[in-house]
Amino acid sequence: MLAAFLFGINGATSKVAITTGLTPEQVVSVRTLTAALLALGWAIARNPRLLKIHISDLPRLMILGGIGVGALQWSYSIGVSNLPVGIALLIEYTAVIMIPIATFLFFKEKAKPQLWVGAFMVVIGLVMVSEIWGGGLNPTGALFAFIAALCLTYYFIGAERIQRRVSTTAVMVYAIGTASIMFFIFADWGSLEPGALQQTVNLMGNLEGFDVPQWWLMVWLGIMGAFLPMLFTYLAVRHISSTVMGVISTSEVLFAFLFGFLWLGETIGIIQTIGGIVVLTGIFIAQTSRVRRLKRRNGEINVNSRPNTGGLREDSTV
């Protein structure tokens, strides 16, 4: 729930950062670099041996970081800059529907019939949210929010499978590290005016009376918008199933709508509200549709969705 809360407020924070003149690439670069350094420090403080990986796993971790972390944050940043943050996140969370469909099509994993009921509800709900009969949503925002959903689908599936071989700590460090390097290269820092990060920015909306330094906003995004919610997510999966965690994580959409309203003054119509409820209901139904298979390994039975620590115990306490 803490992860969902922090991710929920991040949409409004990213929108403010982009409207102050920074590009989505620069926002993602600073955010992932901060998170990567913190993740590395966390890993070294806990157990440096958890960072050990087989060289054959490195390409998969790099692709996971490039698509599932970097491209996800980049596309979502563009989405929220063109849409209300709640609607952008609602579209992104259709990944919950895409995951069981993708695993059914590509990996032959069984899915319960309620998957298709949930998928139908999500489609109907999104039509209501988009209000396509009245001109629809901003096409650029909707497109990039949908790309974010595809990236999130890849991240969930890729992270779940790589964690059968690599510790969750290593996945976090290498994935975020790859994203930070990739976007540092493509962020076009030469276009940034000298001293831009030292300038004060207005928080806009209902917080218009407050100004903060630009660098403070970037550090917030790195710590509170990336590292901590990802850390809370990894700690949560040590105690609850991925299905339960997925259901709880959908509250991120509600937090995004709440902060979009309280902070930025964003509102949506009655039909869009009903559509959002239909989408969330469909997501909730689909979340329980995947059939988990049990694997016996080293004399123990492990659920596939649980991360494998590579033979090293990861302490589940903070």
Question: Helices, strands, pairings?
Answer:
Layout: H1 2-19, H2 24-46, H3 58-82, H4 85-92, H5 95-106, H6 114-130, H7 139-162, H8 168-186, E1 200-202, E2 211-213, H9 214-236, H10 242-249, H11 251-262, H12 270-287, E3 294-297, E4 300-303
Antiparallel strand pairs: 1-2, 3-4
- Helix amount: 55-70%
Mean pLDDT: 79
What is the tally of beta strands? Answer: 4
Largest sheet: 2 strands, antiparallel
Structural class: mainly alpha
Structural summary, described in words:
This protein is mainly alpha-helical and 318 residues long. The chain has one domain (2-303). It contains twelve helices and four strands. The protein has helices at 2-19, 24-46, 58-82, 85-92, 95-106, 114-130, 139-162, 168-186, 214-236, 242-249, 251-262, 270-287, and strands at 200-202, 211-213, 294-297, 300-303. The chain starts with a helix and ends in a 15-residue tail after the last strand.
Tag the structure with descriptive keywords:
globular; two-stranded antiparallel ribbon; 4 strands; 318 residues; mainly alpha; disordered C terminus; single chain; 12 helices
Give a quick summary of the entry.
With 318 residues, the protein is mainly alpha-helical.
